[in-house]
Amino acid sequence: MLQLHDHDGSHYLTYPPPERYSAEVGPEALEQALRERGGARPLALHVHLPFCRQACRFCASQRVPSRDSRQAEPYLSRLDREMVLVSRLLSESPPVERLHWGGGAPAFLSLDQMGDLFDRLDARFGLSGARGRDFSIEIDPREADVFTLRHLQALGFNRLSLGVQEFDLRVQRAVNRVQPRVLTESLVDEAERLGFRSLNLDLIVGLPLQTPRGFGDTLEQVIAMAPAHITLHRYAHLPQRYRPQQEIRVEELPDAATRLAILGEARGRLQAAGYVHIGLGHFARRDDSLALALSEGRLARDLQGYTSHPPGDQLGLGVAAISRVGATLTRNARQLEEYEAALDASRLPVAGGLRPGPEQRLRAAAMEALACRRELDLTALSREYGCNAGVLLADDLQRLAPFCEAGLLERQGERLRLTPDGAWGLTRLLAAFDPGADPTP
Fold first, then answer.
1. Which of 45, 31, 71 is nearest to 304 (CA)?
2. Residue 382 DSSP class
3. Is the peptide bond before 104 cis (omega within 30 degrees of 0)?
4. Which of 48, 73, 140, 288 could form a disulfide with 318 if both were Cys (CB 3.0 to 4.6 A apart)?
5. Which tens digits make up the pLDDT trace of 253-299?
6. Residue 362 backbone dihedrals phi, psi, to 5 degrees
7. Domains and CATH numbers, the chain
8. DSSP H or E run through 120
């Protein structure tokens, strides 16, 4: 069973995944989707800020290494140009209640640059000041201090995600991310003092020199900080795709048995500490909004992960950012030069996209049902999409049969339910609805 857990589900945040987008679906597709969207439909914003000062060897993000925040100025100017082009296509919308800054390391920007970017977003789209808003930002503790958090809180951010990865010094050195625990602790303490509503700490399983005991010690230290969320990511070694990973020594990577032992240790410690397994490596305290949304059947997902907010459209801004507007999926140019060239020509920087067909939308809905509600009602799905879901998904359901036999799924007629063990193997179950993927361990 533990073999089911050794898999990363981030590529199923949207289906079909971005790797299958076509260059034939370009800027015109996003323009049309933006013009046609209903004005009352919620719009979430994701801003991709690719800069960082220090290259972590495990990095799989689209990043721009730099030492000087002034080098971000041309990018911020292009980002504003993208906002202008997009905002012209939007009808009047309610204030934006969901905003996320990711990267890279958004705290690479100076405080003035952060303030200016926030003001421009407000001017172009109208940011909500409501108490229930979710304005989140990813923070590398090496790039931030208490003054950074105070500035972010003053701007309106109320959610933080801190990248811990590992506290074991041997592992930190192996991935070029030496980060004393005191850096993280000081930010956690300040975030609590400032009243940030939610704090997430990210960890990575599968890094070089990692051991079950060492990771267990890291997890105990993280649990002692009592964050609302803890996220376990799986390291995927793809040096041919991500250049920083070429510096990782393959012989230092933990083997499959060690990774599984680390995950087993993590499962036991998190359950003992009272964290609820939301799914796909996400854990939350029982009093957190995600845990409550799961128990009340209103959990949802967007391109950043799980959310307690109703699903809506999501607009990605910046290099390599992904948008989902209506049924249209698009991704911006992945290379900075291509992104800049498009905006300099006053074009949206979309490099590819997809308009999912009826069967793809049906499969995506089936995945969302399992990922968010832990059950799939084929009768309800048929009614919603005006089809016989059991017939159209017959091959997919057949691929799920071994998981039913293993006790990861329970099927009663037209209804399938995840068991607690099945929630740990959720990515493999979702892969059953992805033709061409191999869902078996």
1. 45
2. H
3. yes
4. 48
5. 999 899 989 988 898 999 999 999 998 889 999 999 999 999 999 99
6. -65, -45
7. 2-315 (3.80.30.20), 358-431 (1.10.10.920)
8. helix 111-125
